[in-house]
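User: Could you check the structure of this?
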Amino acid sequence: MRAILHADKNWGIGKNNALMFKIPADMKFFKNTTTGNVVVMGSNTLKSFPQGKPLKDRINIVLYPEGEYRDDCVIVKSVDELFAEISKYPSDKVFVVGGMMMYKTLLPYCDEVLVTKVDAVGNADAFFENLDENKNFKLVYESEPEETNGYIIRFTTYKNVNVKRYFK
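Assistant: Sure, the predicted structure tokens are below.
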């Protein structure tokens, strides 16, 4: 399983249940990486999408304890149910896409984290763990900086050297 996100200089990932930055190169990377795969999210992330609709061309699994059945995504009511559901798919096809609590809960189980680092401060109210300070994660890839939409970004990949397994 992998996590995918963008983060500002302070590892901020969102503000008011929305992205802090509109960066076309990041959105294209996210879409290209996750299309045809499984995306895992919490209910607030699902609600933050246009009209609260799941992402197209992906299997959307949503941890939504009080949620009702929907035919456009898979609703699970507990972390145990979530692990049972994602165990049906190859782990390299599963992407955690938010929000903050899902990232915090599932980070130890992620083999990799794909972070688009934005050289800016977005005044976030939701944060991701600083992987540069986490002994379980090693930076294994960092692109050259590129300017897009007025922001300097770098695509990075962190490898978890101590992955917890969620399947039996």
